[in-house]
DNA sequence: ATCCCGAGGG
DNA sequence: CCCTCTGGAT
């Protein structure tokens, strides 16, 4: 299945826009329970006004809340991004640390966010267990764990370190495009023949026709 | 109504 | 383990 994912999504990548590791960190915190498209509509104004941890730590919280409103959870996210900015200035010399154990000490930063930053700003392999990743690895029966930390460990044992970041991107892309939470587009899925969850539950009607005409080799 | 590249708190 | 934070798209 991994080979097909690799062929289907050879160029899968992080779709958040950023100019610095700090901006990627902030954008990733903002991406919780929001589409990255909406984050990308929000961050330009934020980064224009507050490009560095020093700027954001010294900002007026009400102004930041107003800027972050469209991303949802705007009070909690303001607290997180201003808090992590202050922590970066106080404890890390204003630089984003390149180690997981340091990143997760920042307010609002869990393992998922930390691994996004490691994988996309530091070239350090990281498994990012978000809602898509967890759903897909369970559908694929790669693990039956539901706790994100346990999923991360289980998948980490199945794949070599160097593949962790791209595997994360590919599963997330596949989850967004085909293997949706509610009505997966099984009829359009290149993994259909190999997928243990194929045909389970309702399928996207737009692709259902393909299920009846599976192709030349069935 | 349900989902979106979650994290912190109880 | 649960709950809450929150707005926009479908």
Question: How many domain modules?
Answer: 2
What fraction, in percent, of the residue positions are helical? Answer: 40-55%
Provide the β-strand percentage band: under 5%
Question: Low-confidence runs (pLDDT<50, min 5 residues)?
Answer: 213-218
Structural overview:
With 218 residues, the chain is mainly alpha-helical. It folds into 2 domains: 10-177, Endonuclease III, domain 1; 182-218, no CATH class. Helices cover 55% and strands 0% of the residues. The protein has helices at residues 2-8, 21-30, 36-49, 53-57, 61-68, 74-91, 100-103, 111-121, 131-139, 148-158, 164-177, 205-212. The longest helix has 18 residues, at 74-91. It is globular. The protein binds a DNA duplex (10 and 10 nucleotides) through helix 3, helix 6, helix 8, helix 9 and helix 11.
Structure described in brief:
It catalyses: 2'-deoxyribonucleotide-(2'-deoxyribose 5'-phosphate)-2'-deoxyribonucleotide-DNA = a 3'-end 2'-deoxyribonucleotide-(2,3-dehydro-2,3-deoxyribose 5'-phosphate)-DNA + a 5'-end 5'-phospho-2'-deoxyribonucleoside-DNA + H(+). The protein is mainly α and 218 residues long.
